[in-house]
Amino acid sequence: MKVHRIIYPLVIALAVATTTTGCKHKAGRVTALPPPPVPVANPQPPPTLDRGRPLITDQDPNIKFRDTENTGLRNAPITDFNQMIPDPSALAAYTIHFSFDRSDIHARDRSVNLAAVAAALASDPNTKLTIEGHCDERGTEEYNRALGERRAQAARAVLAELGVDSQRMRTISFGKDKPIDPGHNEEAWAKNRRAEFILLRPPTP
């Protein structure tokens, strides 16, 4: 009887210990953490627009592209023009116009208007020419000054190809300061994108 009293508590204690130890082995799984994200290098900033060149590609086949930045034409001394008498009406009919944001010379303007200006200068070697570049109202003052100059230089380059001495021509840009049409629509803007030709006559004695 005494043996049973001693063994029975030992059996119970062993069972409890075994049960407790077994629970420890049944612990839940630990989910592995995902690897840290790979750092991404800062993207390069978008390229800036070269404001010195046209922003729109003109697909008109009647327009011939002209590089006006490397014409190699020299400007005549301004003193050669100071004493000349401007005649704005003489060549007013031969004003040429440009597409939006472009300085390209249209084929018809080259063969008709600029050819007529070159012929007028050839008929009187004592005359000179001022070429004025103009823009519409859109864009900054600085940008339109540069665009107006490119338009005037483009016309000057063609006239030189047609035989006019570059020393008889000077260019000036008014940007958007002298619109011929004060409207604020495409019809007015098309008129204002232009190059005008001012014939300069020698002073009368």
Which descriptors apply to this entry?
single chain, alpha+beta, 60s Ribosomal Protein L30, Chain: A, two-stranded antiparallel ribbon, 205 residues, five-stranded mixed β-sheet
Structure, described:
- This protein is of the alpha+beta class.
- The protein has five helices and seven strands; from the N terminus they run αβαβββαβαβαβ.
- It has helices spanning 2-25, 79-82, 107-123, 141-161, 186-192, and strands spanning 63-64, 85-87, 96-97, 105-106, 128-134, 169-175, 194-201.
- The strands form two sheets. Strands 2, 3, 5, 6 and 7 form a five-stranded mixed sheet that branches. It has a two-stranded antiparallel sheet with strand order 1-4.
- Strand 5 (128-134), helix 4 and strand 6 (169-175) form a beta-alpha-beta unit.
- It starts with a helix and ends with a strand.
- Residues 40-72 have low confidence and may be disordered.
* Main sheet specs: 5 strands, mixed
CATH level 4 superfamily of the domain at 83-201: OmpA-like domain
Structural class by secondary-structure content: alpha+beta
Distance between the termini: 157 Å
CATH class of the domain at 83-201, named Alpha Beta
Q: What is the overall silhouette? A: globular
CATH fold-level assignment of the domain at 83-201:
60s Ribosomal Protein L30, Chain: A
Low-confidence spans: pLDDT under 50, at least 5 residues? 40-72
Q: What value does the Rg take, in angstroms?
A: 42 Å
What is the ordering of alpha helices and beta strands? HEHEEEHEHEHE
Task: Return the CATH architecture of the domain at 83-201.
Answer: 2-Layer Sandwich
The mean pLDDT is: 76
The number of helical segments is 5
